[in-house]
Amino acid sequence: MSQDDISLQPFLNSCESSTNILDSSEETMLEFGQYDDFHTIDWVRDISRDRLRHKQISRKSKESCWDLIKGTHDAWSGWLCVLFVGMAAGLFAGIVDIGASWMSDLKEGICPEAFWLNKEQCCWGSNDTTFDDRSCSQWLTWSQLFGIHSENAGTYILDYIIYVLWALSFSMIAVFLVRTLAPYACGSGIPEIKTILSGFIIRGYLGKWTLIIKSVCMMLAVSAGLSLGKEGPLVHVACCIGNFFSYLFPKYGRNEAKKREILSAASAAGVSVAFGAPIGGVLFSLEEVSYYFPLKTMWRSFFCALVAAFILRSINPFGNSHLVKFYVEYNTPWFFFELLPFILLGVFGGLYGAFFNKFNLKWCRFRKKSRMGLFPIAEVMIVTFVTALLAFPNPYTRENTSILIQRLFKDCGPVDDSDLCDYNATYAPNLNNRRNPYGEAGTGVQNAMWQLFLALILKGILTIFTFGMKVPAGLFIPSMAVGAIAGRLIGTGVEQLAYNFPDWILFDEACAGGQRCVTPGLYAMVGAAAALGGVTRMTVSLVVIMFELTGGLQYIIPIMAAVMTSKWVGDAFGKEGIYDAHIHLNGYPFLDAKEEFKHTTIAADIMRPRRGDPPLVVIEQDNMTVEELETLLQEDDYNGFPVVVSKETQLLVGFVLRRDLSHALDEARKAQDGVVSNSRVYFTTHVPGPLDVGPKPLKLKKMLDQSPFTITDQTPMEVVIDMFRKLGLRQCLVTHKG
Amino acid sequence: MSQDDISLQPFLNSCESSTNILDSSEETMLEFGQYDDFHTIDWVRDISRDRLRHKQISRKSKESCWDLIKGTHDAWSGWLCVLFVGMAAGLFAGIVDIGASWMSDLKEGICPEAFWLNKEQCCWGSNDTTFDDRSCSQWLTWSQLFGIHSENAGTYILDYIIYVLWALSFSMIAVFLVRTLAPYACGSGIPEIKTILSGFIIRGYLGKWTLIIKSVCMMLAVSAGLSLGKEGPLVHVACCIGNFFSYLFPKYGRNEAKKREILSAASAAGVSVAFGAPIGGVLFSLEEVSYYFPLKTMWRSFFCALVAAFILRSINPFGNSHLVKFYVEYNTPWFFFELLPFILLGVFGGLYGAFFNKFNLKWCRFRKKSRMGLFPIAEVMIVTFVTALLAFPNPYTRENTSILIQRLFKDCGPVDDSDLCDYNATYAPNLNNRRNPYGEAGTGVQNAMWQLFLALILKGILTIFTFGMKVPAGLFIPSMAVGAIAGRLIGTGVEQLAYNFPDWILFDEACAGGQRCVTPGLYAMVGAAAALGGVTRMTVSLVVIMFELTGGLQYIIPIMAAVMTSKWVGDAFGKEGIYDAHIHLNGYPFLDAKEEFKHTTIAADIMRPRRGDPPLVVIEQDNMTVEELETLLQEDDYNGFPVVVSKETQLLVGFVLRRDLSHALDEARKAQDGVVSNSRVYFTTHVPGPLDVGPKPLKLKKMLDQSPFTITDQTPMEVVIDMFRKLGLRQCLVTHKG
């Protein structure tokens, strides 16, 4: 069709005359471009539709002032839309952060004077001089609230039971809400968003209900103490917000390809608020989730991510003017010899990733096949029960995972008297007689190491069963926790080695004279990056996220060494990251831009019909009747049909979509006089006049796509796949000598 | 051709039998894939060639251990190559930094005790307690060296003359070296690198001589005090290094498309060392220069950029453990009301960018057309003379531009007693009785403002004449300097306003009670970003570079606001950044991926031959003789010819490249017996046996590309351009009904 003929009349001017019917029905289709659920969109078509719309508007805008305003609004609507998305994403993240932290603390106790404060905020209000980060007099555990102030086995068990009960009730509400109101709100959402951004339609996946329920259930699931994070679901929530706002701007809401630009920006904003890393968010969107990412989208994504971060910082959910709980700043350098343990951590991360991916997939497949999938509520309850039961006794698993990560990342300072920093150290006179946090490990550190080791095993195993349940569940935080624990363990080990053998050849220069040369917190951070890299196989974006978390360029090299090692080790056991694996598990169609294809086939080998099959169904351009076409539509379920000059010569004229054809035939039957079963259908410009005897002909030339993508049957498959990937084709016709 | 037939035999096994000739000649072509100078490469072809090579190697690697090692080496060679490139780029940058700083100071004086030290290093060695950053007793100006220690007009004039003479001699050496040894070493190189990365061949542009001469002349040109920077040329130098190392790895050296992956990584490394911004470098490579940027390249670019930064940090050219002279860290927050002056700075930056681009282009066009272009040495000498003459009297233009930028970015501290920080301030008791650098502007600040204003005008105008001369010349530093001066001026103005009217509604909250609320250094940084954005129209990468320079997330919002405003204001006057404008000026073929095309044409309108022209030259698949083909090659200068079944039916069979065809015919004439002028040429598999009378047929089936890209004549132009852009096509055949 000559696309300039289509005017942008609103949908309302419906059928008036017989020729108009086809025009307007075609417009409808072009204007709304609705796709069926679980179908793939046609990028080329959508993008050229948008170009056409743009052209129309800029032509019109010269006509009147109002049109000029409309044109300007149209040009700015992309920026406006991402501004709104960023603001809303920041707002939602702030609410979720505050809510999750309050509800997490609710499991352990309450602030009786102001029940809406979490433990930390509650303790700020108190005037205790003896405040350490474990307790304060304003904050009461449940047993204390009930008037039991002695610390014995009884109060412990009471607190234990209350903890488990809260966990169970949180997760019950969460899974119940998900089950009844928004089935799509479960999981991390990133595999599905990847699929959606690659051009697939899943109706309702980014809907309003999903948004609300996922936000609420995310808080509940995190508070229930399950081994999951809210970072992945935040990306999903941000995309829901993006989808919501895109409907306010018809330019995006009505064009699936354009809408994906907003969704890319939204996913950047999601990562930005999840980790306080706007640049990392943009790179995540580029590297991990997006499919079509023009530079304009990149710039908007950046803007969106920054606005979201700015709003979240204004909300200041953690009271530390940083966007995430586990933001750190180190002041100590790292030494060259430390690359060895860092690479070891990378190996650990890769192995853990491979282990996790394998068993999680096995478990998910088992859930899908067995009868277990029928009892999601029971499953969630059991996992919550086991998690709460095992987590409470260990102080490192009892607390919120992001607090754990914060604790592990933090360097031991002179005033830190937690177990992790309990060194048998001399009191240094140059530190105002405070403890010098470097020395032989005290009993506290030894205890902490054992507890951390148990926490490592617990988290590592529980996450396998948790990810994939019917609650919102992100992977980032548990993976990072596992890596951070491993890192802290190795880091403390290296530190003790360096303390005890400062003159060993490896430590020679850096640690000579008993100088402090190892920062266990940095090892935790490197380990976290390695484990996350092993599970997701992210690379650049992960390093940048970590860089933004530490706020120092100097730690990029250790992190990168670990992440690269982790990716290579992980790839040795299986190429797929967990998200891609889940995409395949769920059977979504996804053409991975990263995979290398090693086909030696040519197009002729894989095209349909195969050699020897019955010949391809084709439509002749001027020789078929309405009835014949209808039969054809009923008999075959191809998405479209090539139109040829005649069956004998098989010269390709164009391509007609199944949807368009059946729609047009229906409309014609209903409204166009004289169209009967044996009316001829013409796909040519030249239609024989009404002089002919016989029923009135039906002209469908406009419907014909005269420029289908064609390749010859000798084209190598790699080129074909490249075409599909880069141009976002839906179909491609294979020709042999025309 | 069925590509599997081609084996990767080395070039040596040349012609043995008559059939082998064509095979081996074809291999040669496929193996080396040489393109002519000033030609465009064929991405699709090169990439599928690499895939084929990869397949061969992985097939072979199963055969023997040696092949396995070779295969592993091949797989790792990309990483190895970027490792070398990064290391070399860091090394070169370090040398250039040290050399330029030494030679710059040489204009003013010398360190007699250790002439190889620059001023700063020289003064470190001195024990002066009265050291300020202007002078120290170890460092002697030339007049002091000659024994004149009184400060009067005579010594001033002596220093002045020596300054000008040094400048002239530096620039003379630079332009002379460029003219005689490496004509491509002039300019910034970024426009050409953009063109090369988009798939154009410019032989020698990235050669060894260019590398050496550009590095040396870069130092000389910077030291001559010309209004130019070494940051752009550093990108060119890094690309030369990339080109050099790619020849060590045949995988990259012999495949132009693959080589561009290394070049993309190299350009990231170049920016990384120029600004100490590895992430910014990768984004620069992605946003500004690269054309084909798969994710694997991104990861390698990141690695390369990091290695380069790491090496440069180890060299530590500035002695401050930072990669660039003008690295800063602010500790003061910014306030919301300041967005207004920041946006003003954005407007300034956009206007300056538009002004600069317009006049620089006019001047370059004038240079090209007029006779002035014939005297490049004289031009450089005159500009140097004028620059030196005008720059010496003003302390802000006399010094190296990057030191100026550093000075402007820096915040006034209590111990800073330079002019810029000369406030009439009370001595604050809480600052150990040091000066509180906030108060009414003293005479020093007022002086400095005037001098900076003059420097702004001088730099703004001189850069127009400098950029485009026959010396290595980058734009980043002078543009940033102009912006930084403007920013500092506005910043100081706002600061004085806030000091004098602290209760004004705008300042109300932030500056109440005479509190310090404005950081002029931050304004300088925002201004620098805005001006650079206006000139180059970079966006994300610029913000990220600035972010890495300041090391703080909190200043991203001001910088982004300014850069966005600057881009929009600049775009209102002309869409092109300076690099794109220079690409057009030099007439390089460059298909900009960012431009939006507004064609309403379809392929039929622009294809060749146009309607009404003589018919397209085609080759019949089995009906032409050698002579006919030779005539055809002589008469027409198309790059290739479509092969059809016969002239009557015009059914497309394939496409043959002019180069291949003429090569094959020559070879056949020379070596294949029985090929005479009227031998028939067959592009089909089935060749009539030698039973026929007449000369021996020539089989060229293997040469035929049986899968040319085809589109129909009704395809909209946008889709065609998309195809060319995204797939990197060289040609595309337009078909009408086959």
Automatic annotation (TrEMBL), chains A, B:
Record's subcellular location: Endosome membrane; Membrane
One GO MF term: ATP binding
GO CC term, one of those recorded: early endosome
Family annotation (InterPro entries): CBS_dom, CBS_dom_sf, Cl-channel_core, ClC
Hydrolase in keyword set: no
Keywords: Antiport, ATP-binding, CBS domain, Chloride, Endosome, Ion transport, Membrane, Nucleotide-binding, Repeat, Transmembrane, Transmembrane helix, Transport
Gene3D superfamilies reported for this sequence: 3.90.1280.20, Clc chloride channel
SMART domains: CBS (SM00116)
Pfam families named among the record's database cross-references: CBS, Voltage_CLC
Transmembrane portions of the chain: 76-96, 160-182, 202-222, 234-250, 262-286, 335-354, 374-392, 448-468, 475-494, 522-547
Mode of membrane association: Multi-pass membrane protein
CBS domain sequence ranges: 607-671
Family label: Belongs to the chloride channel (TC 2.A.49) family.
Name the record gives this protein: Chloride channel protein
Organism of origin: Branchiostoma lanceolatum (Common lancelet)
Gene: CLCN3
